[in-house]
Amino acid sequence: MVIEHRTAPIEQHGRRVPATRQVTATTTQDLRDGLVGLVPELRGRALRLAGDAAVADDLVQDTVERALRFCDQYERGTNLRAWAHQILFSVFVTRYRRSRRERNALRNLATDPCAWTTPERFAAPDATTRLTASTEDRLAALPVGFRRVVELVDLEDRSYRDAAAALDIPVGTVMSRLHRGRRMLAESMAAEAA
After folding, report:
1. What is the spatial distance between Cα 159 and Cα 153, in angstroms, rounded to a whole number?
2. pTM over the 0.90 mark
3. pLDDT of 168-180, one tens digit each?
C-alpha cells in the first residue's frame, strides 16, 4: 500500500516552504503505483531542468525505467519521492555530460576531419616503443616507489589493480603515486626544455 505522509511547512532561508507529502512503499507493486503517481511531478521537474518538453519526457521515461530496474535498491518504507527525484537528477546529469562529450567530439571532427582515423596524441606507449636515453635517465631519477608505478602502468600497460597487487599496496596509492610520478617526470622534462 502506498502511504502518503504530509510534512509540516518549514522555514528555509527566511521563506516559508509549503508542506510536501512523503510517498513511501512497502512492496514492489506499491513502488510501481507510487512511481505512476509521481510521473506528473517528475515531468515538471524534468521540464525545469531540461527546458524542452521532448527531452523532459525522455528523462522521465529513463527515470521510471531505471527505478523499476533497480527497485531492489529502494529501501522499503523510505521516501519514494526523494528516491525518484534523485534518480531523475542523476539521469539528467548523465545525459548532460554525454551530450557535452558528443559536442566536443563533433567540434574536434569539424576542425580536423581526420580526427577519427588518427591515433590519440597522448596514447600510452606500446610494448615496441623504446624510451630515449634522456627519458630513461629521468625515469631512473624518480624515487623508487613512483618509478615502479610509472613503469608498471605506463610502460608495461598494467591495470591499477595489477600494479597494486605486484607492489603489495592499495589501488588508491597506485593512482596517487602514478599521478605524482608523471608530474615529477613532466617537470623534469620541462626544466630541461627551458
Report:
1. 6
2. no
3. 999 899 999 998 9
Residue with grid cell 623534469, as numbered in its chain: 188
Q: 133-185 maps to which CATH number?
A: 1.10.10.10
Report angle CA 91, 74, 12 to the nearest 5 degrees: 70
Domain parsing of the chain, residue ranges: 3-111, 133-185
Instruction: Answer whether 42's CB lies under 8 Å from 66's CB.
Output: no
**What's the grid cell of residue 61?**
521515461
Whether the CA torsion 158, 161, 167, 173 is positive or negative: it is: positive
Give tens-digit pLDDT for 29-68: 988 999 999 999 999 999 999 999 999 999 999 999 999 9
In whole angstroms, give the CA distance from residue 132 to residue 46. Answer: 54
C-alpha cell at 191: 626544466
Q: Which CATH class is domain 3-111?
A: mainly alpha
pLDDT, tens only, 11-26: 656 665 455 567 888 8
Reading the block at residue 97, the C-alpha cell is: 555530460
Distances (CA, A) of 130 to 7, 109, 134, 136, 151: 67, 31, 12, 9, 12
- Check: CB of residue 167 under 8 Å from CB of residue 174: yes
